[in-house]
Specification:
- The chain is of the alpha+beta class.
- The protein is built from eleven helices and seven strands.
- It folds into two domains: 179 residues, no CATH class; 144 residues, Heat Shock Protein 90 (2-Layer Sandwich), CATH 3.30.565.10.
- Helix content is 58%, strand content 10%.
- Helix 2 runs antiparallel to helix 3 and helix 6 packs antiparallel against helix 7.
């Protein structure tokens, strides 16, 4: 394992308690706000202490706020500690500092009365908003606002302004925090899906270049030898088909809403007599278009099983071009003579005409069918990537060649 493939979780230099979530910048910003709000509260206490009834008690409250601010900042740094006990303790301590302001200041309940914590009481409210979202932030803001109104002793427009602003700020910050957390989770899932897809594709390439080619060679050589070796060849062919299905299992196409991976849907047709060859990366088409194209391929393989002969083999090749997606189905069966499809359609047998050509025509694509008696049949199905946008259809055409 190289250094490039070692996950970050194995790096011992990474602090396991470090916060790497979207909320980390919000908590750091809150820490800066709390320090600034504490400094402002202490400046006000120093300026107004001579007019307080109990100046010493005011400084004790200031010391409690200072100690708790330092403790709270350190505790909130760890995501594992941002739980209800810490949030409740934060609310109780800062709310208590607010409630004791009236007896310490000793001023009657007038609207202009300023509490000892000042704007520092917004610290626990914002912590609730970041941790519990807009509902938690609103609840905390209402509790602090009620305590603030109690210290003022009167409710009017002047006393409500700051409290209404606190509630609105808590709701806004809580909403942003939840949106950011959701976006971060979706990004992590998309990143994990992309990593898993790249890993699977790398393994698929490695297996295709080694194991699958060996199994295919064993299957062909053993079938040619006959006898007991033929049975071994059959088993090798089955294991080749199963392994192709495993390494090419369905994977969502990240970042393409409403799209389907044609490659993954074709892999289910792999068997001892059907070989699937697809690109290493997903081949995306709109869901309905992919379903119709895969259904046309299924119809072509059904025709191989019914008309090409018991020992016939089929090959399915998927090509992804910038302007179109092409699927070619080829078999080594008996083939058919020129005009056979027209005669079948005239007789009312519309299998190829409807299930293959009709589907491709409806998708705006085309189906080219070429067959030679004794040499098998090839069906090329091509769907333009502009299908569904231009609304134009390119007529299907059937090309037959006889030996």
């Amino acid at each position: 394992m190289t250094a490039e493939t070692v996950p970050d979780t194995y790096d011992r230099r990474v602090d396991p308690g470090r916060d790497t979530s979207f909320e980390a910048p919000l908590w750091r910003a809150l820490a800066v706000f709390r320090v600034a709000a504490l400094a402002y509260a202490l400046i006000l206490i120093g300026h107004n202490a001579p007019s307080y009834r109990h100046p010493a008690a005011a400084w004790i409250v200031g010391a409690v706020m200072a100690v708790w601010t330092i403790v709270a900042i350190r505790l909130y740094r760890r995501p594992s500690r941002r739980r209800w006990p810490l949030l409740v303790a934060d609310m109780v301590i800062m709310g208590g500092c607010l409630l004791v302001s009236v007896p310490i200041i000793g001023i009657g309940p007038i609207p202009s009365t300023r509490s000892l914590p000042g704007i520092a009481v917004a610290g626990p409210v914002l912590a609730w908003a970041i941790s519990a979202g807009r509902r938690g932030g609103a609840v905390a803001a209402i509790v602090i606002a009620a305590a603030d109104l109690w210290t003022r002793g009167i409710v009017n427009q002047s006393t409500l302004n700051s409290d209404i602003l606190l509630v609105l700020a808590a709701i806004a910050i809580g909403h942003v925090a939840r949106l950011g957390a959701t976006a971060h989770e979706q990004l992590e899932r998309a990143t994990g899906m992309a990593v898993a897809t790249r890993t699977r594709e790398r393994l698929a390439r490695d297996i295709h270049d080694s194991v699958l080619q060996v199994l295919a060679l064993v299957a062909r050589r053993a079938q040619a030898l006959g006898g007991e070796a033929a049975e071994l060849g059959r088993l090798a062919g089955e294991q080749e088909a199963a392994l192709r299905t495993l390494v090419g299992s369905s994977t969502p196409v990240a970042g393409l809403d409403g799209q389907a991976d044609v490659r993954a849907r074709l892999d289910r047709f792999a068997s001892a007599t059907v070989t699937i060859a697809t690109p290493a990366s997903p081949v995306a088409l709109p869901g309905r278009v992919a379903e119709e194209l895969v259904a046309a391929v299924a119809s072509a393989l059904d025709n191989v099983a019914q008309h090409a002969g018991a020992d016939a083999r089929a090959w399915v090749l998927l090509e992804d071009d910038p302007d179109a997606v092409t699927v070619t189905v080829r078999d080594d069966g008996a083939g058919f003579a020129a005009g056979a499809l027209d005669r079948a359609a005239a007789a009312g047998r519309l299998g190829v005409a409807q299930s293959i050509c009709g589907r491709l025509r409806d998708l705006g694509g085309r189906a080219d069918i070429r067959s030679t008696p004794g040499e098998g049949t090839q069906i090329e199905m091509r769907v333009p990537r502009s299908v569904g946008r231009s609304g134009r259809s390119e007529p299907s055409r059937v090309a037959e060649s006889a030996a």
